[in-house]
From TrEMBL:
Superkingdom: Bacteria
The name this protein goes by in its record: Haloacid dehalogenase type II
Phylogenetic lineage: Bacteria, Bacillati, Actinomycetota, Actinomycetes, Kitasatosporales
Gene3D superfamilies in the record: 1.10.150.750, HAD superfamily/HAD-like
Keywords recorded for this protein, A-Z: Hydrolase
One Pfam match: Hydrolase
Length: 242
């Protein structure tokens, strides 16, 4: 009878930021309401969807080579202009403030404490499609604490292109299979898998749930659950070594 296959060792945790650690729709929704406080809820949601669709569409065009790379700041400004135009707001200062709302995103209730707990056992890397400047603002506003924060701007492309995940692999100095990518978006985890990273899906209200065909290494209800699962893995490995 063959020996049971040991669980792969995980040395570094790599976190998606937007949606996984911060509530992106809530922050953008607040920015839209500040643009025009008279907007009703239905109109606010319609404008939020307009913003999200623009960002997703333009990032896809960049990934497909249909448009030169632009950092997230530039795409946020475009989205803000579209939303303001649809809302009938032409004040340039108001539009600029709306664009910056993409940097003022609230953390999920378990984010700050969860990162602090996980940091006791692992180096933590933030890996975001947000630009370097936007990521600085995001981290400061949400109280995120990293050992390293990496922006897709350094790869001049967006996730799920493998070059973005390669940034974390390069910084860690480790083989990809020793890194665990943590995200609330199945598409993000699939991108990490293609480069050989381990994957952990964390459930969030605004994420992209796994499909039936997805096979991720861990599935967690939140960061506390993720920490407990990782602690259990380490305990099993320690016990196996005797």
């Amino acid at each position: 009878m063959s020996e049971p296959k040991s669980e792969p060792e995980i040395d570094v945790l790599v976190f998606d930021v937007l949606g996984t650690l911060v509530d992106e729709p809530a922050g953008l929704r607040a920015g839209i309401r500040a643009l025009d406080p008279s907007l009703d809820d239905a109109t606010t949601e319609r404008l939020l969807l307009l913003w999200q669709e623009h960002i997703e569409h333009e990032q896809r065009r960049i990934l497909d080579g249909e448009r030169p790379y632009l950092p997230s700041d530039a795409l946020d400004r475009e989205a803000a202009h579209r939303v303001a135009e649809a809302a009938g707001v032409g004040d340039p200062d108001a539009v600029a403030a709306l664009a910056l709302s993409a940097r003022r995103l609230p953390p999920w209730p378990d984010t700050v404490a969860g990162l602090a707990r996980l940091a006791e056992g692992f180096p933590l890397i933030g890996l975001s499609n947000a630009s370097r400047t936007a990521l600085l603002g995001l981290n400061a506003h949400a109280g995120l604490r990293w050992h390293q924060a990496l922006s897709a701007e350094d790869a001049r492309v967006y996730k799920p292109d493998p070059e973005v995940y390669r940034l974390a692999v390069t910084v860690s100095g480790l083989p990809p299979e020793r890194l665990l990518m943590v995200a609330a978006h199945a598409w993000d985890l699939r991108g990490a898998q293609r480069l050989g990273l381990r994957t952990a899906y964390v459930s969030r209200p605004v994420g992209d749930p796994p499909a039936a065909s997805d096979r991720f290494d861990l599935y967690a209800d939140g960061l506390a659950d993720l920490a407990e699962q990782l602690d259990a893995r380490r305990a099993r490995r320690k016990a196996a070594r005797g």
